[in-house]
Amino acid sequence: MLAMIRSAGVWLLISSLAAPSWAQQTGFGYPNNTRESSKVLPFAASPHAKDFADEEDRIWDEAKDAEKTIRRRGALLAQKEVVKLLQDLTLHLYPEFNGTMRSHLVNDPGLNAFAFPNGGLYFNLGLVARMESVSQLACVVGHEGAHFVHRHSYQSRQSAKTASAFGVASAMFGLVGALGALAAVSSMFGYSRELESEADRVGHARLLKVGLDSADCVRVFELMAEEAKAVDVKSPVLFASHPKLTERIENFKTLALKAPVANPELLDPWEKKFQLAIQPLRQAWLESALAMGQHAVLVHYLSRPGIDSLMPAGYRYFLAEAYRLRAQAGDFQKASEIHRANLETNKDFPAGHLGLGMALLASGDKPGAKESLNTYLKLSPRSQSAAFAQQTLLDLEK
Amino acid sequence: MNTLNFRHASLKAAKVLAGLSVAFSLGACAPAWVQVDKTNAALSGEGPSSKSSFRAPDGWLRIDQPILSGLLLSKDGEGVQQIQMAQATPERIFAGSKIKVAAKTSPEDLAAAFQAHYKAGLGGGEVQPKSLTPITLSGLSGFRSHFAIRDQKGAPREIVVVGAQRGNEVFYASYNALAIHYFQRDLPVFDQIVASIRLK
Question: Alpha-carbon distance A79 to A132, whole Å?
Fold first, then answer.
């Protein structure tokens, strides 16, 4: 019986993939019958505010306010190539929403993205920088776009269940205020299982339509599951064993079985654009993740096999510093080893000597720490950290 | 059955009474803003858990924050300017942002943790560093970090944080004020307080 139910589920997934999206099927323009019908129809083209029911109008106003707040706080990154790539990909997947769907890059090292109900799509630096191919990025763009097109915020707001989700999000993001609450509910993990599955299916279908490699979508969610497991995320929405994440990986695997192979003629130009834009962003992510205290994430991610081909040349410095600052048993030793190995090939790298000095000090090797800090001071006597290095040397003399 | 119900009802009533009594006592003990007064040395000079002493400015208002073994001072209102002092484990201090700070963190790394904490509180908003220098705080090696942010309404604010770590406890004092007019006006008050801090 269970097997039958499973096969029926798989069949449903495959049939929904084969069918065009519901908006295209019905041929509706903007559904101006919202007031009469309890069924929320997806947008088929850029909507007009005058057609909205009061509740949806309010949601759009909230989204506008949240977007203003994001801009005022300077939370967006201006990396032109990456922002252009995101916007181009968005309109490549959703050409009928030119002018409404706007993609932005958020200065946040976390692995997440969110869509506001008014078509504002936000992708974290930490997500974009860790995508390995343009198809993986397009998978996230397709998913977030589907949340907007299928009006998932409006649908969620209508259900009492999500009213409490808004409450939870507000509590979780007390420091962030309204921005955090709306972003949390609109994020890759904020909707109900049904709406997330719909966004996965719709996004996946859009990728197929433009000839990108939809099979790569599995990797995006595997990346999240691996990270959640490795850094022991306690938050239930991201926890590796949470049914949402494991179920979504399985759904994508099923979808991939029936998907045609990507068309290289359509895929390759996008892949080239992606690879050119993404390299500087990976350096920015390493710096941001270290500055924001994501030491466990860095240790996990930068220790993966094959990471050399993805990350900029100096990434091992960040791995060493992540070990030093994570400060778990054996971490100072590992940090010292990696710093030493780096300095063998780049002996005049000041930050490497400073990092080594601090790692040696933390592991109790005072003479080694003194030597490294003095080398750092010779190489970089006027830096901001030089004053702290001198302070540490004075403390060592006491 | 009746007895059980009666017992159940009595238990319920007792629980309600106990709840009310706790709520009443909490209300009675809830911290309130009080004016710093020269005549009351204890009010102006001690943290709530007596882990530190300092000289508070006359005429300012103070409220205790027992959960952080800390307190808040303001002259014109928290939204205009506030000085916060606290001494607690890093887990407590960075609870909102979940920034992890180890027991052997250097002053420079501790300063970076505070900047990350503020940045996380701004939802990824920009934290513009202005200066970062080592200092000695009541005999401990520490830091003084100055940076600028924009609050939720876009108003520019400047923040100075001084801090030091002793074992698994972090002590910090922060001054957070509207950049226009207030920050410069009350910065000397903050610096005087910092100079008077004695950690016990």
Answer: 18
Across the interface, of B100, B132, B141, the residue whose CB is closest to A293 is B100
Put simply, the answer to whether B126 touches A74 (Cβ < 8 Å) is yes
Token look-up 């008050």 returns B189
User: How far is CA A40 from each of CA A23, A36, A111, A205, rounded to the nearest angstrom?
Assistant: 11, 10, 30, 20
Q: Left if phi > 0, otherwise alpha if psi is -120 to 50, otherwise beta: which for B156?
A: beta
Name residue B184's amino acid: Q
Q: What is the pLDDT of residues A352-377, one digit of tens each?
A: 999 999 999 999 999 999 999 999 99
**Nearest-angstrom CA–CA distance, A191 and A189:** 6
Residue B150 and residue B157 in contact, taking contact as beta carbons nearer than 8 Å: yes
Chain-centroid distance, C-alpha A151 = 21
At A246 the pLDDT is: 82
ipTM of the complex: 0.79
Which residues of A make CB contacts under 8 Å with B? 69-70, 72-75, 106-108, 173-177, 179-180, 183, 291-293, 295-296, 325-327, 358, 361-362, 384-385, 387-388, 390-392, 395
CB A141 within 8 A of CB A90: yes
Q: Locate A353 and state its tokens.
A: 């000597």
Contact status of B168 with chain A (Cβ, < 8 Å)? no
Name the amino acid, one letter, at B112.
A
pTM for the model stands at 0.81
Supply B189's token pair.
Answer: 């008050």
- What are the DSSP calls for A131-144, one per residue? --SHHHHHHHHHHH
Nearest CA in chain B to A108: B124
Could you tell me the two tokens for A201? 């299916």
CA distance A273 to A268: 9
The helix-helix angle for A193-209 and A243-258 (nearest 10°) equals: 30
Contact A72 B150 (CB under 8 A): yes
Q: What's the angle, vertex CA A102, arms to CA A288 and CA A85, rounded to 5?
A: 60
Distances B49 to B26, B69, B173, B200 between C-alpha atoms, Å: 18, 6, 16, 10
Q: Which chain A residues are Cβ-neighbours of B122 within 8 angstroms? A: 73, 75, 176
Do A44 and A27 touch, CB atoms closer than 8 A?
Answer: yes
